[in-house]
Design goal:
Blueprint lengths: L2 H19 L7 H5 L18 H10 L4 H13 L6 E4 L1 H16 L11 E5 L25 H8 L3 E6 L28 H8 L5 E5 L6 H7 L2 E4 L20 E5 L2 H11 L18 E5 L8 H12 L7 E5 L4 H26 L8 H11 L3 H21 L5 E5 L15 H14 L3 E5 L8 E6 L4 H14 L4
Parallel strand pairs: 2-3, 2-4, 7-8, 7-9
Antiparallel strand pairs: 1-3, 4-6, 5-6, 5-10, 9-11, 10-11
Length: 477
């Protein structure tokens, strides 16, 4: 990296640390939202509605119907003790399910999600449903679907409702919701409701966004699969923006193939990635990003290490790599926060909303970002361009990088603010440079742990092939 970029990064990071990262007025989230609901049922083994491909076979064979699948999902939503959903339209969902069943009887299958009940994060417009972005200050009821919702409907999906989000998607905790594996802990964010919905069988997949870490962190903390594609490969029209240069529409599902099918439906003109399930991976070179293990909790380190050990015999080579360095992760976090918060502040200034109604920690982030000099924003973008080129060089040596998705387990709600930086540290870099990444669960007897696999731009099929092979070897789905 050039000395100009290094100096720019250093100056901007110092300003950001002083102005944005630690807002002095923010109240702890648990003081705002209170303790978890009581009583909260013990889950044991979390229920699942089954794989999307399996549902498709059952629907085609007449073993089940879209109405039956939708009714089951709605029954589970009715027992939602974790604040997964903020809006459900049961009548509309059942009407859609009946229409999908009628189409199947007539011999018409729309696509890979035909008749499958799904959910949508509440920063993405669904026609006729409210969009609140998790905020008391934002009220819209759009007539039209977002482009991604249009694509899912075109593939046959049945929309159940909207899932909860950290306010305006501007955080990684979703403190108003609860982790279904332990309701005293956060689900992660900002797509926390989507992760809960998938983990508890309230539908087969969920449509969310990932600007900094918002799909992969909650997927890791709730034990599901989160898949973020290459930047700008899924349209963002109809998504309330957080950061227009970092926003990604992304998916969560219970398994790797499900996530691939869900993403394929969003990219109908791109080569399908679901067929990569079962593809050969013996030629792949996998790099272990050693800096991503720094500060990892012992249980996370052990779970990820066990999963990484299973790469032996699957791929051509597994080698430690010193890039990204700790400075790369730290720089991407600092600059990614600066860019995303400045861009968010621009949107919120134009929107003219009543910031007194915002969560304190969100308001303070935006207020501080309003004061960041334009030169710092420009320097951050220059740093980003240089970092992207350096990461492209890493993927000329390795097909895929592996690392913990989050170095820590889901923290208790009352301590979540202590973990903001480390929760997203390993994830922001890949949104910042726009590379595809997937988080998949590691087998564990305790709280969920996620393994993150990353590829170069356009490498989604590589990720699916390796994630599926690794999951199969580990005995998962």
């Amino acid at each position: 990296m050039s000395s100009v970029a290094i100096n720019a990064f250093t100056a901007a990071r110092e300003r950001l640390a002083a102005q944005v990262i630690d807002p002095p007025e923010a109240r702890p989230a648990y003081e705002v939202f209170g303790p978890p609901p009581a009583p909260v049922p013990a889950l044991g083994a979390l229920p699942s509605t089954g794989a999307i491909a399996g549902a498709a076979r059952a629907l085609d064979a007449g073993v089940t119907t879209s109405v039956a699948l939708t009714e089951l999902a709605l029954q589970r939503i009715a027992k939602d003790d974790w604040t997964a959903f903020v809006h459900v339209d049961a009548q509309a969902a059942l009407a859609e399910a009946r229409a999908r069943d009628a189409e199947l009887r007539a011999g018409r299958r729309r696509g890979p999600l035909h008749g499958v009940p799904v959910s949508v994060k509440d920063v993405i417009h669904v026609g006729g449903m409210p969009t609140r972005c998790g905020s008391d200050a934002f009220h819209q009821r759009p007539e039209a679907d977002a482009a991604a919702v249009d694509l899912w409907r075109a593939a046959g999906a049945v929309i159940l409702g909207k899932t909860s989000t950290h306010e305006f998607a501007l955080g990684v905790t979703s403190p108003q919701a609860r982790n279904p594996h332990d309701p005293t802990r956060i689900p992660g964010g900002s797509s926390g409701g989507s992760a809960i919905a998938v983990a508890t069988g309230m539908g087969f997949a969920s449509l969310g966004t990932d600007t900094r870490a918002s799909i992969r962190v909650p997927a890791a903390l709730c034990g599901v699969v989160g898949l973020k594609p290459t930047y700008e490969t899924v349209p963002t029209r109809g998504v309330v923006p957080l950061s227009w240069t970092m926003d990604h529409v992304a998916v969560m599902a219970a398994g790797v193939e499900d996530a691939a099918l869900a993403l394929d439906a969003l990219r109908p003109d791109a080569p399908a990635i679901a067929p990569a399930v079962g593809a050969r991976v013996s030629h792949l070179r996998v790099g272990l990003a050693t800096a991503a293990w720094e500060g990892a909790e012992a249980v996370v380190e052990a779970a990820v290490a066990r999963q990484v050990d299973k790469l032996d015999g699957l791929v051509a080579a597994v080698r430690e790599t010193d890039r990204p360095t700790a400075a790369d992760f730290g720089g991407a976090n600092a600059m990614g926060l600066l860019v995303s918060r400045c861009e968010a502040a621009t949107f919120h200034r134009a929107a003219g909303l009543d910031r007194s109604l915002y969560w304190a920690e969100v308001r303070d982030q935006l207020d501080a970002a309003d004061g960041v000099p334009a030169t710092d924003y420009i320097d951050a973008q220059r740093y980003r361009s240089a970092l992207r080129e350096e990461m492209l060089a890493v993927f000329r040596e390795h097909h895929v990088l592996a690392m913990p998705t989050a170095p820590v387990l889901a923290p208790p709600v009352e301590r979540a603010d202590e973990y903001l930086t480390i929760l997203s540290r390993n994830a922001i870099l890949w949104s910042f440079v726009g590379f595809p990444a997937i988080s998949l669960p590691c087998p564990t007897d305790g709280l969920p742990v996620g393994l993150q696999l990353v590829a170069g731009p356009g490498g989604e099929a590589l990720l699916i092939a390796l994630a599926a092979a690794l999951t199969e070897k580990a005995g998962g789905a």
